[in-house]
Amino acid sequence: MDMDLKLKIKRKKTKILRDTSRVITRLHVPHDKTRIPKIVNRVLHLTESDAGDLIEKILHEFSDRHKNIRQVLERHCNDVAEYIPESEQISETKKLLIGAHFTMEYAIESAALFNPSIVPDPDQTNVPEGGIRFIMSLRATGEGHISSIVFRSGIIDKQNSITFNSASEFVETPGLRVDSAYNRHLFLLKLMEMNACNDTTTQVLEQLPEEFSYSELKARIGRLLSDPNVSVNSEAIEIMHWLADSNYEINFPVDHRISERVIFPVSENETSGIEDARFVQFFDENGEVTYYATYTAYNGITILPQLIETKDFITFNIITLNGKAVQNKGMALFPRKIKGRYAMLSRQDGENNHIMFSDHLHFWQKSEIIQEPMKPWEFIQIGNCGSPLETSEGWLVLTHGVGPMRQYSIGAMLLDLDEPAQIIGHLKYPLLTPNEGEREGYVPNVVYSCGALIHNNELIIPYAMSDITSGIATVSVSDLIDNMRPL
Fold it and tell me: Strands, E, within 403-457: which ranges?
């Protein structure tokens, strides 16, 4: 039961459920590369008639599961083209069949759909008066606990009733384009931060222009490696490739519905998943809107904080966050600059709530603790539950606390509008704790959010239930702030 009885918390009946039928296609290549030419040759030795019958069956079975299955098979055939004998004249049928043998489906939501955040949709045309169209991001988890970002959409009307649009049966990964340009100075700063600067990185970078492309970087590295008179540090080369691959652009077809788009791991530092995106609608000094999201890239060993940037939820730029203060998980950007500087909440030490400020969105060097665990329900750790929300009384911040039996609860605090390192109020008790219907799941006894929204003086809180599914709770903003007390 929610402990602060003065607050009326409403849990909506709507649940955002995982759908095991939503699948993407993935390139599937054996770890043992010697098997690839064997598979290719087996396909090539089929008669044209047998190959035709087989690919017709495949296209028939999978065309209603993927909008572009033929293009997928063509692309995956191209991915293994180096293993196809140059002397072979291959029919389109066998090219498709080769691609099919290196393609697999992946059910992105088969394990869980959780840790949601919510922002206003950039397109508010034809929304009924007093309502708002929203986009919700969620962490989807499938086989092997690989996480990706999926989206849902809907409308909140003037009475704050929430209606979700039906999720499409199709879901597609985007086209990928490694960033066309890198800034040499920023690239060098990140290498220095990683303690990766040496003679090799100097020899590469000093021959590149101030703004260089990915192909120029690869060409310069190639020339260096081919020079027998130069000693090359292979680890430095690997790190430069890793850094370049961590900054890229993805694009979805304009005609794809928002629920058909999935941001799936594509770079080496994301091989084990993209975790807990916190989206925020950010306003610059001129009132122009950009949507940002911080997320945690995980490769099975280490984590890397990353930033997503988009204007339209069609084209997304993925950028590495840099600096000594970019550590651990749970970074949440404020929706505007404060006194001319970017501001972000964070949890560098895995225990306390921090705040940090920066002149540059991509670089964060210092942080300070603004909140330490004080109550039993947060004795283990505290952190934010998404970006701060601006009210006339202050910055409203949802927090999470971890207490006995590793139970996660959601709390709230209020920060000063001009000096957000100052907490001017907080709830004495949790806002939400797991009830009996929310305790069972992949990780029991957890409620968690990655971002809320204020509409018509009501706080709309999408939240995860035990890391398996999600729901929505609402509470009056005025009542919430009235129930806060100074530390």
Answer: 408-415, 423-426, 447-448, 453-455
Structure tokens, 318: 């993925």
User: Residue 329 — pLDDT band, cuts 50, 70, 90?
Assistant: confident
Q: Enumerate residues 6+ apart whose C-beta is below 8 A from 454.
A: 389, 391, 396, 460, 477
Nearest to 187 by CA among 205, 169, 168: 205
Its sign, for the CA torsion 397, 402, 403, 409, is positive
Helix, strand, or coil (residue 241): helix
Where are the chain's structural domains? 10-20+108-176+247-482, 23-107, 180-245
DSSP-assigned states of every residue in 316-352: EEEEE-BSTT--SS--EE-SS-BTTBEEEEE-TTSSS
The strand pair at 23-27 and 103-107 is best described as: antiparallel
Token duo for residue 275: 């975790």
Q: Where are the beta strands (DSSP E) in 49-131?
A: 103-107, 112-120
Q: Read off the pLDDT of residues 261-276 as tens digits, 9 standing for 90 and up.
A: 999 987 766 777 888 9
Helix pair 214-226, 234-245: axis angle to 10 deg: 170
DSSP annotation of 172: B
Predicted pLDDT at 265: 87
The residues near 236 (Cβ < 8 Å, ≥ 6 apart) are: 196, 198, 200, 201
Which residues lie closer than 8 Å to 316 by C-beta, 6 or more apart? 174, 249, 250, 251, 263, 308, 309, 310
| CATH class of segment(s) 10-20+108-176+247-482 | mainly beta
Q: Rounding to the nearest 10 degrees, give the CA dihedral for residues 122, 123, 128, 131.
A: -10
- Other beta carbons less than 10 A from residue 165's beta carbon: 13
